[in-house]
Design the sequence.
């Protein structure tokens, strides 16, 4: 085994003098490191293995960090982390206080842009390139965007402006024909055509060489000559969307052939106009299990390297699994139910629904905005669309929820997956804002069951409502309650008053109900009489229940795994104020900060939402209340 080149790399400067074979050796070492680390930590291995050569070539050709390389999402950039001084921290990736799974400006000066959501790179990079020009600065700007992210409207909003401004910037399209699942849509098909068109590249080069060889005209005839060249170009070459939009198109180039990549990148770098480099890569490249099962290896947990088997402890069905099974059950009885995902068939488990009802299932690509408005159109025309979407990604479709769904009061069901803390993906993916941003919008109703069984009941009931509804549920396994029985009816808008209590009533949302029951046990042991309400509904609030507990109890405490500001507790507080009900209220939830990656339990503890911390706080508060004379 040759000596390690990787160990000597502190920054890209250290390999800019390498020859091709050294670079290839480096790529292999980086690849091995990604595999051995993610096998232990889990993470975005597939995309990262596919982008190893691409990242080496970028840092080789560009003078980073002076030149800016912007990565879309950032999940594919593990090689970038390893090569920019983070090799020895790499094993901490996605772990508490370790490296983020995405790019972070505080981690490295080479991370010039932070993301987690798709298709922001082009707009961010264009902003940098325009600022550079206005400030007369010399650096180059390149961005890397996947074919999946190019299904997002936002990418095309940026392409539109870039093609118009003709700003100097390089757009690397990292085309592996995969989103998380196989990429979908007409544009994806177009990219496939572009890279597989037989002889297209050769023909293109020959025709361009021919046109270039035409005599250069001088003076007033020059412009006419150029236009004639343009016309001929368009007349004889099959249209290329990028060129039509004003980009110079380089490619397709093999994204695992470092020599070709570097050659093409150098040529592209020296073009003073916007450029697209179309790079063909393979997801999971170099690790057989990830090449063969790209969906499973998009972002797996820990796995066994030799077999590629996932190291998973047997757990209860996940909320997503129960959601999809329930939807199938309901769809068997109701032909009007249709399901939508924005590029997350595996994550939302709608792939199961797809298998049963292929014609009633739509993967719209990474296009949450379109998905919401598409659902509005379906609902307008007699169907019952269910848009299964992670809480964090619904953020992108806010105006569509407000303007198209809620304003027209259409019966769209938003099945909000990953509501609450999400763990390893961290700050950009926490599902802790949706109540706040949905609750203010007229017509929509919002509910969350205490477990997967209640989620089933809420889903069924929601599909009978005449208006938009959001049903939230958390990431990961449910509590293992029975989900095979027929779905029981639930009274819409009604909370479940589990225990009554004179001293304090805990109003809990979602699985926090179980925490509340634990808190109650602890406080009862201290001699307090504590009530527990499973709130279920954030909107409408169960006003009868609120009136009742306000009369029965001395104090109220709300519990939720959501931002405190604007959440369920805020709703309760607003209601009490509006009804001039004077009762001590304490709201428990998440603070006004972005919460990083790390185990959910750790953050629940840190933000005092564990049963232990809540009991401590409640005890303290009850003691304080006892010393305050009644007003
Ligand atoms: C707005 C948004 N929706 C969904 C996702 C979830 N997601 C993460 S990676 C990914 C696929 C991206 O595909 P592509 O851009 O081709 O990159 P690749 O993983 O193939 O390198 C998706 C859908 C996201 N990050 N952002």
Sequence:
């Amino acid at each position: 085994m040759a000596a390690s080149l990787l160990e000597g790399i502190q920054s890209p400067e250290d390999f800019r003098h390498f020859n091709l074979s050294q670079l290839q050796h480096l790529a292999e070492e980086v690849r091995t490191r990604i595999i051995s680390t993610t096998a232990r930590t889990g993470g975005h291995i597939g995309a990262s293995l596919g982008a190893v050569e691409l990242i080496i070539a970028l840092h080789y050709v560009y003078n980073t960090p002076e030149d800016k390389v912007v990565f879309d999402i950032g999940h594919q950039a593990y090689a970038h982390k390893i090569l920019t001084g983070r090799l020895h921290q790499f094993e901490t990736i996605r772990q508490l206080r370790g490296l983020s799974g995405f790019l972070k400006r505080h981690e490295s000066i080479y991370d010039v842009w932070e993301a987690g959501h798709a298709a922001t790179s082009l707009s961010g990079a264009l902003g940098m390139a325009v600022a550079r020009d206005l400030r007369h600065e010399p650096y180059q700007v390149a961005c890397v965007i996947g074919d999946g992210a190019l299904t997002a409207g936002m990418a095309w909003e940026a392409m539109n402006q870039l093609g118009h401004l003709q700003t100097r910037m390089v757009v690397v399209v990292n085309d592996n024909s995969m989103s998380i699942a196989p990429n979908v849509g007409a544009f994806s098909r177009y990219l496939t055509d572009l890279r597989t068109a037989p002889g297209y590249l050769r023909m293109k080069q020959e025709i361009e060489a021919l046109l270039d060889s035409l005599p250069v005209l001088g003076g007033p005839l020059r412009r006419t000559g150029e236009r004639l060249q343009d016309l001929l170009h368009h007349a004889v070459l099959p249209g290329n969307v990028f060129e039509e939009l004003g980009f110079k198109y380089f490619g397709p180039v093999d994204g695992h052939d470092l020599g070709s990549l570097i050659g093409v990148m150098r040529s592209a770098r020296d073009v003073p106009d916007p450029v697209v480099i179309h790079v063909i890569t393979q997801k999971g490249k170099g690790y057989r299990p990830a090449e063969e099962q790209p969906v499973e290896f998009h972002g797996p947990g820990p796995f066994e390297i030799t077999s590629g088997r996932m190291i998973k402890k047997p757990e209860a069905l996940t909320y997503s699994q129960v959601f999809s099974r329930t939807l199938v059950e309901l769809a068997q009885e109701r032909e009007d139910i249709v399901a939508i995902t924005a590029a997350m068939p595996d994550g939302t488990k709608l792939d199961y629904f797809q298998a049963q009802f292929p014609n009633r299932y739509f993967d719209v690509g990474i296009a949450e905005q379109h998905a919401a408005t598409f659902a509005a159109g379906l609902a307008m025309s007699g169907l019952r669309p269910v848009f299964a979407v992670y809480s964090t990604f619904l953020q992108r479709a806010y105006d569509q929820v407000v303007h198209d769904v809620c304003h027209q009061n259409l019966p769209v069901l938003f099945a909000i997956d990953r509501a609450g803390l999400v763990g390893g993906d961290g700050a950009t993916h926490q599902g802790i804002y949706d109540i706040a941003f949905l609750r203010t919008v007229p017509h929509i109703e919002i509910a969350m069951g205490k477990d997967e069984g209640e989620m089933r009941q809420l889903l069924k009931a929601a599909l009978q409502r005449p208006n938009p509804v959001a049903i939230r549920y958390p990431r990961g396994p449910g509590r293992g309650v029975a989900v095979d029985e027929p779905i029981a009816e639930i009274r819409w808008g009604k909370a479940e008053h589990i225990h009554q209590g004179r001293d304090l009533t805990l109003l809990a949302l979602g699985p926090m109900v179980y925490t509340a029951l634990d808190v109650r046990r602890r406080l009862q042991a201290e001699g307090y009489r504590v009530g527990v309400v499973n709130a279920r509904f954030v909107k409408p609030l169960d006003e009868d229940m609120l009136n009742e507990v306000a009369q029965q109890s001395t104090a109220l405490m709300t519990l939720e795994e959501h931002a405190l500001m604007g959440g369920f507790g805020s709703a309760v507080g607003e209601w009490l104020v509006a009804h001039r009900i004077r009762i001590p209220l304490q709201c428990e939830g998440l603070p006004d900060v972005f919460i990083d990656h790390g185990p959910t339990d750790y953050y629940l503890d840190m933000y005092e939402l564990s049963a232990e911390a809540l009991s401590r706080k409640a005890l303290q508060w009850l003691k304080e209340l006892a010393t305050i004379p009644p007003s």
Summary: The first strand starts at residue 68 and ends at 71. The pocket of thiamine diphosphate is lined by residues 47, 73, 75-76, 117-118, 146-149, 174, 176, 178-180, 283, 342-343, 366, 368, 393, 396 (CB under 6 Å).
